[in-house]
Amino acid sequence: MLYKELTVYNVKQEVNNMQNDFTKLEEIAKNVRKHIVTMLTESASGHPGGSLSIVELLTTLYFKEMNINPENPHDDNRDRFVLSKGHAAPALYSVLAERGYFSTAELISLRKFGSILQGHPNMNTVPGVDMSTGSLGQGISASVGMALASKIDSKDYRVYSILGDGELEEGEVWEASMAAAQYNLDNLTAFVDNNGLQIDGKCSDVMSPEPISNKFRAFNWHVIDIDGHDYSQIIAAIEEAKNTKGKPTMIVCKTTKGKGVSFMENVASWHGTAPSKQQRDVALKEIIGGEK
Q1: What CATH number did the domain enclosing 262 receive?
Q2: I need a labelling partner for 21 at 20 to 30 A (CA). Which of 14, 206, 220, 264 fits?
Q3: In 3D, which of 133, 156, 266 has the Cα closest to residue 203?
Q4: In the beta sheet, which residues pair with residue 190?
């Protein structure tokens, strides 16, 4: 009886701990979304739609999953992250600032002359950025190289990367994917931000990447399909990826472009359009209050 009661108690504690974790992650995600909208308004340039769609993924990676230390950003044993869809830099910058790599006050300098925070991530100027990205397809290729280096050097760090679904139109993505499977890179976990939109409209109209999951399975990846805004699914998928041996894992995330701002959600024109000050104020009200 004591064992049964203890087990139930432990389960309850675990559930409570998970709920507390989700609450913390949600609060961080709100801050990240506020940063994204504010900094893009200040810069009058940038990419809100695809930045807002990956907030939950980045928040989970940087605040729960990855082995990192902002006080030692070049630790050889740290986990690596590569934003292959480099135009979503506002999301990465916001998460890095929240995590303590640099001051959140730096965020409003986005894209301004002399700022370390330019339109795409630069590993030479931004603390916490592991790879300079922007030319689509190159980020996942660099991720494969990092994961292979970990194997060659007998290190145990993991490599994470986020791709856009429009980015899958790049042939280099598939060359990298073939190499990742060939070298059994089970220390590589990638995510597809499958929001269905790219700069010119619906991915299905421009150059359909579907069926995404089946394509990566054909390239001998372990594939998991999830809701990319659901923390429990994200965490479970990452854990499954850690336990998958002999092949890389692709987590295909169904997401909403512009997530959290009603007038941006599922609207292709917000791929690369900065909000006005009036639109910023409406967006911030929604993000803070959860209103639609």
Answers
A1: 3.40.50.970
A2: 264
A3: 266
A4: 161, 250
Number of domains comprising the chain: 1
Angle at 82 between CA 172 and CA 191, to 5 degrees: 75
β-pair partners for 173:
none
Chain length of the chain: 292
Two tokens, residue 106? 């730096």
Note the Cα 161 to chain centre separation in Å: 7
**Left if phi > 0, otherwise alpha if psi is -120 to 50, otherwise beta: which for 100?**
left
What type of residue is 242?
A: K
DSSP labels, 232-254: HHHHHHHHHHHT--SS-EEEEEE
Asked if 176 contacts 148 with a C-beta cutoff of 8 angstroms, the reply is no
Q: Which of 112, 91, 119, 123 is nearest to 257 (CA)?
A: 91
Predicted TM-score (pTM) of this structure: 0.93
Q: What is the rounded average pLDDT of the residues 144-152?
A: 98
The sign of the CA dihedral 151, 130, 78, 27 is negative
CA 287 to chain centre: 19
Domain range for 273 is: 2-289
pLDDT, one tens digit per residue, over 186-229 is 999 999 999 999 999 999 999 999 999 999 999 999 999 999 99
d(C-alpha 263, C-alpha 287), whole Å: 12
